[in-house]
Amino acid sequence: MSLHGPQDGPLATTLRSARPRPGSRALRRASVMLAASTAVLVLATACTGGPAEPPTSGSPSGTASGTPAPSPTGSSAGDTVTVEHAQGTTEVPAGPEKVFVFDLGVLDSLNALGIQPDGVPDAPYPEELQPVADGAEVRVGSLTEPDLDVIAKEEPDLIIISAATAEAYPELSGIAPTIDLSVDPSAPMESFTQNATALGEVFGREMQVQAALSGIETKIEDARATLKDAGNTNGLVVMTGSGEITAFGPESRFGLIHDVLGVPSATPVMAEGTDGAPASPEFIADADPDNLFVIDEDAALGRQGATAEDVLDDDLVSGTKAARNGKVIYLDPADWYLVGYGLDNLHRVVNEVVNHVATASPTGLGRDVSGT
After folding, report:
1. Which of 77, 113, 185, 213 has its CA 20 to 30 A from that of 106?
2. Is the C-alpha dihedral spanning 229, 235, 237, 238 positive or negative?
3. With contact defined as beta carbons under 8 Å apart, do 134 and 109 qualify?
4. Which is nearest to 188 in space by CA: 96, 281, 274, 247?
5. Whether the predicted model's global pTM rises above the 0.85 cut
6. Between β-strands 277-279 and 244-248, what pairing exists: parallel, antiparallel or unpaired?
7. Are residues 136 and 250 located together in one domain of the fold?
8. Domain range for residue 302?
């Protein structure tokens, strides 16, 4: 793992919905004391002319100017962080040097914090994350199937997974400390905030994370106000894939539109779990949404097949208020399907919804990608 970018952003408060994390204050005090003692030791070594230790594998040797790069808080041997996650509580090394990441939302957050993981899965990376993928030294399997042999051979210090890789947790946690940073659809911002806060503590980026979360909170508050001012608008979220249509409601995989941004659901979606319910053009016509949000699964995964436009090219869909008013909104498939909740990506997806819903669109049934 390499570190780049500023060590910390300006001090800011976390989201009001964040749950407190036991022991984090004590950890920060301990980290500060440890950093101070390390500085004294380095100074003493310099004064006595002692040789400097070479950088460890996976850590930066210095900045572009040749000066030593800063180390993350709490990175000294023996220092650990207690992380509460979707599958329990795990002690992980502070400032881990070799990190494998299976979740693209976490990868987006680490990129925002200036952290380059050493191992990532084979995946169709969006443009924003392709440089991060290219910078990783190891491919550790796919998004859903970790390569256990490769991972065991590489001996990582930390493995980060999410829902897509959750079933492999017992095997992965037997190889190295593993944390499951899945986002809970029933409380998405609360769990995302807890996950981001954990990343800040593990990598010594607490203040930078707090500043980023504060910015996201402001973004969401502004978005909710703008969407409310847009008038009496509801929405329906559908995903197309392999020629099929799936509908999503609140507390689902794509519930951010309803649960976080406050767009009312045009109709109840009777789904088991968070992966949506089978739908059809008739279902969409009966719902008659003001805004029809569309995610193309095949496009996100780079699969050949009928496009979302082809699947929804139906007279019943064309007769809805959304189609008549140019509010069939084709969301960025990678940002929504692959990445989701990330410190950078949340800004993109929130902007996309606001720009489409609150702005008059001259287009009808067809791709509208003006949201930036």
Report:
1. 77
2. negative
3. no
4. 274
5. no
6. antiparallel
7. no
8. 230-357
